[in-house]
Design brief:
- The chain is α/β, with parallel strands linked by helices.
- The chain is built from 24 helices and 14 strands.
- 44% of the residues lie in helices and 10% in strands.
- A seven-stranded mixed beta sheet has the order 8-7-6-9-10-11-14, sandwiched between helices.
- Helix 4 packs across helix 7, helix 5 crosses helix 6 and helix 10 crosses helix 20.
- The chain is globular, with a radius of gyration of 23 Å.
- About 1% of the residues have low confidence.
């Protein structure tokens, strides 16, 4: 049963008539009863027949299947979200495996690229570099008082697609949809925000339909001042809100996380969420390799936010197993666009320095695989088809069960496909990807490739923060989330080749993760809500269910 309170509008009474039909959080469309239509001035504004939510959902799916492309399906579902959020989430949750690739990866990538051309209705808040000095005023324009989760981007590094500027709004909108669909965060508690600080994307700058400021990116002190004003204003306007930084460029992501993580309730999903979901996959893989994390050597293709974030969490896990920090870092190696990250290279970015080992320089991934003999290959490069047949075959020659994680998004950016990984490794790879791939049959065995999607992690973390009132989000919380996610993979799923649970169980999994993260919050003294006797039951009780409420 949906026990969540109705959203409140400041300064106005509960809407009726046309205003009610235009409020997506409250609108029920043709499901308004005869009594509701009479008392809420809806008579004549709707067709006379009263339909159930299930009948409405059947109509939605009938039209969904008629849409010829994934982008058209995306537009259709976003339009539904804009007019009836309860029906939107009811439909998404009941068809999650079909809907996830539409409302998020990979379709959201194409949607962001074309955002100015498919734009229908505003959603969320846009704060531009021209709004210095009035960010607080803009936040007060948001009609809901009790915001608990904000996803904010400046659009500089959207998935593996790069700088999409204000078009990146599709990412906060999509992420927050997953908070609700996967972990039951009431949509009235969520707020997507785009900081439009310009773009260096020439295509967008020359596009007359681009929705953002047609100017180059703000940098330096002016940029930092805008971020500072934004964080300060959020803390004043929405003091219980979690701020999730999303798809910021490498030059800003690490330093902003470092600057604000102890001042605000915040995390960076590209750094910490990706790390947790990857570590969870590695923990699950140990059930197939039958050894310890410290028995492995990890080679990354890509040394940006995701790669370094994963490396840092792996190092923490290795230290738990008894390694020294130095020995743990020696287990993690990185190849970037210039080759192997080693000490002899000049002008390395600060975030790469802890992993710049004293080792001869190697020019590319193939040379690194041959020399370092890794047991796990982790792709976070944003460069498609870089795990070539010779590289995967070499991994299979070196390892009985090579771990191949092609995590870049969207699908076109995946380092290799599931079919390639299984075929080139003679069916022995332990494989997962960032975007979904269909099951693969090889040598008579059918593999269901896992999807290392952050949606296994951040919704549960967010649910925990909301339910416990945590003041901060810590690395220990992400470690707990990773271990818990790995523990939810059943033997049956493992036998299918999955190293992540089926998406159909995501709400169940998110509640378990939220309980584990909540336990850390209480142990660290960060929770504002008194600790309940049963944390799991507490998390489950907080979860929004998209069923219609009666208004009479």
């Amino acid at each position: 049963m949906n026990t969540q309170p109705l959203p409140t509008h400041p300064f106005v009474a509960f809407p009726n008539g046309v205003d009610l039909l235009h409020d997506p959080l409250l609108n029920k469309g043709t499901a308004f009863s005869e009594e509701e239509r009479l008392s809420l001035r809806l008579c004549g504004l709707l067709p006379p027949r009263v339909l159930t939510q299930e009948q409405q959902a059947a109509r939605i799916m009938e039209n969904f299947y008629k849409k010829p492309t994934m982008l058209e399906k995306y537009i259709f579902m976003v339009s539904l979200q804009d007019r009836n959020e309860t029906l939107f989430y009811h439909t998404v949750i009941n068809h999650l495996e079909e809907m996830m690739p539409i409302i998020y990866t990979p379709t959201v990538g194409q949607a962001c690229q074309e955002y100015g051309h498919i734009y229908r209705r505003p959603r969320g808040l846009y704060i531009s570099s021209q709004d210095r000095g009035r960010v607080a005023d803009i936040l007060h324009n948001w009609p809901y008082e009790d915001v608990r989760v904000i996803v904010v981007t400046d659009g500089e590094r959207i998935l593996g697609l790069g700088d999409l500027g204000a078009n990146g709004m599709g990412i906060p909108v999509g992420k927050l949809s997953l908070y609700t669909a996967c972990a039951g965060i009431n949509p009235a508690y969520t707020l997507p925000i785009t900081l439009d600080v310009g773009t260096n994307n020439e295509t967008l700058l020359n596009d007359p339909l681009y929705i953002g400021l047609p100017q180059r990116r703000l940098r330096g002190q002016a940029y930092d001042d805008l971020i500072e004003e934004f964080v300060t204003a959020v803390q004043a306007r929405f003091p219980r809100a979690l701020i999730q930084f999303e798809d910021f460029g490498n030059s800003n992501a690490f330093r902003l996380l470092k600057k604000y993580r102890d001042r605000a309730c915040t995390f960076n999903d590209d750094v910490q969420g990706t790390a947790a979901v990857t570590l969870a996959g590695l923990y699950t893989a140990l059930r197939l390799t039958h050894n310890r994390l410290s028995d492995h050597t990890f080679l990354f293709l890509g040394a940006g936010e995701a790669g370094i974030g994963i490396g840092d969490l792996i190092v923490s896990a290795l230290i738990e197993e008894g390694l020294t920090p130095e020995a743990a870092r020696q287990k993690c190696w990185f190849v970037d666009s210039q080759g192997l990250v080693v000490k002899s290279r000049e002008n390395l970015a600060e975030h790469k320095l802890p992993y710049a080992h004293d080792y001869p320089f190697l020019p590319d991934l193939a040379a690194a695989v041959a020399a370092l003999r890794p047991t796990a290959l982790i792709g976070v490069s944003g460069q498609g088809q870089t795990f070539t047949q010779p590289i995967v075959a070499k991994m299979a020659q070196l390892n009985e069960k090579p771990i191949i994680l092609a995590l870049s998004n969207p699908t076109s950016k995946a380092e290799c496909t599931a079919e390639e990984a299984y075929r080139w490794s003679d069916g022995r790879a332990i494989y997962a990807s960032g975007s979904p791939f269909d099951p693969v049959t090889f040598n008579g065995q059918t593999f269901i490739p896992g999807q290392g999607n952050n949606s296994y992690i951040f919704p549960g973390v967010g649910l925990s923060v909301v339910a416990c009132g945590s003041r901060h989000v810590t690395d220990e919380m992400f470690m707990a989330a990773a271990k818990t996610l790995a523990s939810t993979v059943t033997p049956q799923e493992l036998a299918q080749g999955r190293i992540y649970p089926a998406l159909t169980r995501i709400r169940e999994v998110s509640a378990v993760i939220a309980a584990a993260v909540g336990q850390v919050a209480y142990e660290q003294g960060l929770a504002a809500v008194p600790k309940p006797d049963d944390l799991l039951a507490h998390m489950q009780a907080q979860m929004y269910e998209p069923v219609y409420q009666s208004y009479v």
